[in-house]
Amino acid sequence: MRLILLLALCSTVALSTRHHTTKWQCSVTALNTSVHVDCSDRNLKDIPEKLPWNVTELNLSGNQIKYVAAVPLRHLFNLTVIDLNSNFIEYFDNKEPPFLHCEGLKTLLFDHNKLSKVPRQLPVRLSNLSLASNQINSVKSEDFANLSLIESINLDNNCYFHSSCNGSLMIENGTFSNLNHLTNLSLTMNRLQKVPQYLPESLMSLKLLLNTIAHINKSDFSGLTSLRFLDLSGNCPFCPNAPFPCKPCGDNGLVIHPQAFAHLAQLEELRLSGNSLQTVNSAWFRNLTRLQYLFLSFNFLITEIQTGSFLSMLPHVEVIDLSYNNLNKALFPRLNISQHFANMTSLRALHLQGYYFSKLLSDDLKPLYNLRNLTVLNMGVNFLQKIDFSFLKLFYDLSVFTLVENQLTNLLLTPESSCCLTCGKVGASGHSDLPILFRPYIHRDEDYRFYPPAIKPECVNAGNVLDLSRNLIFNINPKLFSNTENIACLNLSSNSIGETLNGSEFRLFPKLKYLDLSRNRLYLSSDQAFTELPYLEILDLNHNKHYFQVVGLNHSLAFTRYLKSLKVLYLNWNEISSLTEPHMHSTSLQKLYFAGNQLDMMWRNSQGFNLFKNLTNLQILDLSLNGLKSIPNSVYENLPDTLTYLRLNQNGLSSFNWTVLSCLPRLEELHLSKNELDHVTASLSSLTRQLKVLDLSHNRIAQLSGLLLSATLSLRILDLSHNSLTTLNATTFQTGQPDSLQTLRLENNPFRCTCDLLDFILWIRYSPVSLPNLVTKVQCNLPESKRGRSIMLSDIDICLNDDLAQILYTATSSIVILVLSIAVCAHLFYWDVSYIFSFLKAKVKSQRPNSAQYMYNAFIMYDTSDPLASDWVLHYLRVELEECGGERARPLCLEERDWIPGMPVLDNLSQSVRLSRKTVFVLTESFLGSSLFKMAVFLAHQRLLEEGVDVMVLLQLQPVLQRSRILGLRRCLRQSSVLEWPVNPAAHSWFWQQLRSAVLTERPAKHSSLHRRYFSGR
């Protein structure tokens, strides 16, 4: 495989196209006629030169580019969008403009750079130019002289408080006057002191927020007859609580001329938040007949909210934000709103946070009851303590009512208290100071265009919403929730509810589908909890650990058995470590979130192995952060086979039983990140056929099988980032079907960038698989000289001359030279070579030692006390060497047959060794320890020293001396002198042939002359 890839590289290096070169450096996405090249966040210092010629969108944001050259962009005639945000660009070369050849360029983004002036000689067809967060001090008319078709200009944050600009952004009069197609102009955070003059009539959106404009004159917007969006927020903020750099602009706040908006008949959205306004002039809205969104938060308009007549001028406004207009911190006993709210017939959402009142009665909201379109009422952060919910039935179509971050308890308003409170309805309370914890939230207008940002989409989708989160409710009193029968989503999170639920608390919410009780102190010991909610689908019980921490209580989750409609259950962060009934039952539950508990303690005590077994419809299960160093096999076996998503992140797992995947035939996503895994199964295809996502990030995996994904058809995403991988093979990620794997993550692995990685690099270059952050985070760790560099920047040409290539070169060259030499010699020196060969052959034969002095071919040493060894020698070895060998003149010397009776054993042994050509030792386990064996070995060595002849032949009848260094050394030096009786009968004939050759072949010892004289005396 390596050779094939090497040859493929050699054949394609010279023919590689620009697209292939860019593929690994930037991601290329083609859709119909659009080609998007993403080179963002790759630490590039220059624009890549080899970009696809047909690229239409080029993203170069988040790099280190300081200079934009024209050369890389010359051939990009189809380019329409280029994003150069977040670089270090300081200037352009006006002699050779970089975008001169990009005639079709429509969008040019230069945010977060270091430009000191607007670039010149831009393409004439440019429609969108963004230069936000640069260092531009001034803007002149000639900066946009050739951009007659420009539609959007963004110059935000060029002269803000932290910039190098000493004052405000200087805008020359008439700078934008000739831009007749300009529709969007953003000049946010530039410390402008006045509205730019002579703006084009085509303008539809104008953003001037967070400047220092103190006056809005009559003529500032007189020519903007097409304007639909105007943002003047934050020009005169209330500095003591402003979450941004602030400079007061006077005691009266922003001064707006009564006729300032008279010509804005098309205006749909007006933002005047954070301007310290104390009054609202009705004349502002006289001609704003299409106004739909009005934002007036963070002003001093509490009096206008109570009595203001300007509301009568807003019949078409759909969303109004009057939050945080009580910046003087006065606490009112009751809510008092203007009767003119009743004239806002199109109102859909009213945001009234930060009014600060303690009690809310039905009469307080009377001006709103006839608003048929009102669906969202936001009254959060008001320090409300008591409320009467009877007013809910008086609204036509109120679907979202939020009282988040108040001080509601379980106290009810009594008729007596209602009468008393009426007396103090007008005017402020004597307690003018709010609690010291008062801090207004960062309140962005764009977050309040309809629903409050804290409302979850799942809650809104359920139906009517009542949000009572972050209050002081400690007891659920059904009497508190009168007229709530139409509520489908109830949020009681972050309260202090600490009662035992018995199935009666929510009986006044018969249509409830979503219930959020997270961050409370609930007791769930009763099986009847929540049974009064027949339509409950989503139940959030996160962060209710107090109940499960108290030792001695009946810890139970048996209530799930009776919730027939429950689909989603959140039980995260409850520290559940034991259950009186260690099992859950549900036929409807589809999603269970069980992270942040202590299943390790439960399963360590051999309890709860079948906790999830009876959740017969469960599809998603999250068991993250449960301290599971290991998971018993019984747990896997009892998981519902309906699971499609299993998450086991951050458990410290040291091993994972991959065979359990066969027990989960429908599993599509498996998440095992942030554990201690160091092993992955050899092949996924044999275990699962449905797995699409496998997350193994943040583990200790150092090696992968070469067949990991072989025959795998379903896997689409594999995450191996933040592991210990040093090298990879091309075959590791080759699946059973082309293009099945779509995304592979390998960031932050300590790769060893040597030629061993060549196969994998070649696979990356020509594979369609997407590798995010390939250049920036898939980097070398070794060798030291390449540390921090992308593996794709390694010089693979060096690997073309590696050991394999040298071996192939040497072998092929030698074969060619040898064939040529033989052919030449055979033609020219045939007789000479024949003569030399015959001479040397005769010389070798003449030097063969005379074997006439030997009486025996071999002396066979074996354990005569071992009947099996004796039988094998006498009936097999003797027959093969004496009767079948063809040399009967010199038989074998056998102890039981040829030793002279009565002669000492040592004499017989010495004579047998001396008169035999070879000494064959038949090695068995019992024979190795005998003294006779040791003496025979010494005598054989004596002949080696005296005569210089190696006569030893070792025959292993049994597997002995497997780790003997002496036997291993002899096998290396004299391989033919060490034989082993084969187990396979088919090899017996080859064994006898080897033994005959070993016995008949002379092996003189090779000693130096000095060594030979020392031992032989000659």
TrEMBL record:
InterPro entries: Cys-rich_flank_reg_C (IPR000483), Leu-rich_rpt (IPR001611), Leu-rich_rpt_typical-subtyp (IPR003591), LRR_dom_sf (IPR032675), TIR_dom (IPR000157), Toll_tir_struct_dom_sf (IPR035897). Belongs to the Toll-like receptor family. Residues 854-999 form the TIR domain. The lineage of its organism: Eukaryota, Metazoa, Chordata, Craniata, Vertebrata. It is found in: Endomembrane system; Endosome. One of its GO terms (cellular component) is plasma membrane. This is TIR domain-containing protein. Its main location: membrane. GO terms for biological process: canonical NF-kappaB signal transduction; defense response to virus; inflammatory response; innate immune response; positive regulation of interleukin-6 production; positive regulation of intracellular signal transduction; toll-like receptor signaling pathway. Residues 1-16 form the signal peptide. GO terms for molecular function: pattern recognition receptor activity. The chain crosses the membrane at residues 807-831. Keywords: Endosome, Glycoprotein, Immunity, Inflammatory response, Innate immunity, Leucine-rich repeat, Membrane, Receptor, Repeat, Signal, Transmembrane, Transmembrane helix. The keyword Oxidoreductase does not apply. It is a single-pass type I membrane protein.
